[in-house]
Specification:
Elements: H1 2-27, E1 33-35, E2 38-39, E3 54-63, E4 66-75, E5 79-80, E6 88-90, E7 96-100, E8 104-108, E9 113-115, E10 119-131, E11 137-139, E12 144-156, E13 159-162, E14 169-173, E15 176-181, E16 184-187, E17 193-195, E18 199-203, E19 207-210, E20 213-216, E21 232-237, H2 249-261, H3 263-273, H4 293-303, E22 311-317, E23 324-330, H5 338-347, E24 350-356, E25 362-365, E26 369-370
Parallel strand pairs: 4-7, 5-8, 6-9, 7-10, 8-10, 9-11, 10-12, 11-13, 12-14, 12-15, 13-16, 14-17
Antiparallel strand pairs: 1-2, 1-6, 3-4, 15-21, 18-21, 19-20, 22-23, 22-24, 24-25, 24-26
């Protein structure tokens, strides 16, 4: 009996020892994410390739009534792949968010981004993807790629953005896309392509979603004409209010001016704050079905995805002397009364916007708005 107990105890130790490595791997939130063939783990997450370009972290965020942990991949700079594998490969992380922190160009011989788990790409800093022999983005196994608040340019030998025709989905919202390819800009998404109301085709404006691809529009009465998949496609967003092809701090400033001048939007925001949500999707950048404070914050979060913003400052100036008259500052839109913000914008003729970091150093500033010349 004594020997039986010892053998049982030893067996338990062996089984426990065998389980420990499996448990450790399962607990690593980055398991399944590779950068140029290098597996991301907790040990290298802060600087995956030791070059300052790719870093990962996790963040718990409130989603409706609960909380969910997201895995973030932050991109800061240019990089050319050397492994011959996809430059960024998601092999199963279902909550991956890729944020572009500064203007970056990623180049690969084949696939730049391989999506094997639900993935969101965001960041207005500017992301250029170049594939010399393959596709810039490939989505497989029925997963969803979401482009939300991203300024993306793609140049591909094959396809700019490609699904595998196995129920993959593509969601495009509040983004600026400039896609160029030899075989097709967007194809293979028979699970559906959702072009949110915040986006529209600019070139060609006759583009349409058909059979899981973006194709040229054709007359349904002409059965002999088969619409071609477009090789070049330009999608704009209402967030790009000055229509310069990118979303910048100037668009944030324009957004505040537009909202302050739009009585319908201010009425919806007021009703929402009073507990009577109303639907108005004109500037619903966060896709929650209504306008509100979070749509202001949308710009801040997308323009500065690493959270470096310490203060947003609106400064009012004398039109003739240029002397600073008054300033209004806030970090998060929740800190300030929307009435106060609206009144400031409406009453001051000349003002600028500054983004300040924690060391009181301006990260950037918007050009002046001169309302004294408004019609």
């Amino acid at each position: 009996m004594k020997h039986a107990r010892i053998i049982s105890f030893l067996l338990c130790l062996v089984l426990l020892a065998g389980l420990l490595p499996v448990t450790a791997l399962a607990d690593d939130p980055y398991d399944g994410l590779l950068i140029d063939g290098v597996a991301v783990c907790e040990e290298n997450a802060a600087d995956v390739l030791a070059n300052g370009v790719f870093s990962c972290f996790t963040r718990e965020e409130k989603i409706q009534e609960g909380y969910q942990e997201f895995v973030y991949l932050l991109i800061r700079g240019d990089y050319t792949g050397t492994s011959g594998q996809p430059l960024i490969e998601n092999r199963g992380i279902s909550n991956l968010r890729i944020k572009v922190d500064r203007a970056s160009t990623l180049t690969a011989a084949g696939t730049v981004l391989s999506v094997g788990g639900d993935t969101t790409v965001m960041g207005f800093a500017g992301l250029t993807l170049r594939s010399e022999n393959g596709s810039c983005i490939e989505v497989r196994d029925g997963y969803t790629l979401t482009l939300h608040g991203v300024d993306l340019k793609a140049e591909a030998h094959e396809y700019a953005i490609s699904g595998s025709n196995t129920e993959e989905q593509l969601v495009i919202a509040s983004s600026v896309l400039d896609l160029h390819s030899e075989q097709g800009a967007v194809r293979g998404f028979n699970g559906g392509i959702d072009l949110h109301v915040t986006c529209y085709y600019k070139e060609p404006d006759s583009a349409q979603i058909r059979d899981g691809a973006i194709k040229e529009k054709y007359n349904v009465l002409d059965p002999l004409h088969i619409p071609e998949i477009l090789n070049e496609l330009l999608i704009y967003t209402y967030a790009d209010l000055d229509a310069d092809g990118a979303v910048t701090i100037d668009d944030l400033l324009e957004f505040i001016v537009f909202v302050a001048n739009d009585k319908a939007i201010m009425a919806v925001i007021f009703l929402t704050l009073m507990g009577h949500p109303a639907v108005l999707e004109k500037y619903d950048f966060d896709l929650n079905g209504q306008n509100g404070r979070q749509d202001f914050q949308f710009f801040i979060n997308r323009l500065f995805p690493d959270g470096t913003v310490y203060r947003v400052v609106l400064g009012a100036y004398d039109a003739e002397s240029g002397q600073l008259l008054q300033f209004l500052a806030f970090q998060n839109i929740a800190e300030i009364s929307l009435d106060e913000l609206s009144n400031f914008v409406m009453e001051k003729n000349v003002f600028r916007m500054f983004i300040i970091d924690k060391n009181a150093v301006p990260l950037c500033k918007a050009t002046s708005v001169d309302r004294s010349q408004a019609e």
